[in-house]
Write a structure and sequence with these properties.
Order of helices and strands: HHHH
Radius of gyration: 11 Å
Number of helices: 4
Largest sheet: none
Number of strands: 0
Structural class: mainly alpha
Amino acid sequence: MNKTKQEFADIINEYSKIEVTIDNIDQLDLIEDCGFDSIQMIELICSVEDVFGIELDEDYMLADKIRNLHDFFEYIERKIK
């Protein structure tokens, strides 16, 4: 799990205005804490799909569903399994 979580943090760090680590990732919000805008959200979704070899459900790709990093990571873990 830590390897997957680190990969997720690395993806977020490509676009984030703050450093995201496996230690702080569960408390962060993509918009308020990391400073993501709508374009960065789309880029993040594409990167997550590419890196993890998954396809996010269309109804899950709304900003309010992915902005909480803890919930987003748990969703990714479910899709990987």
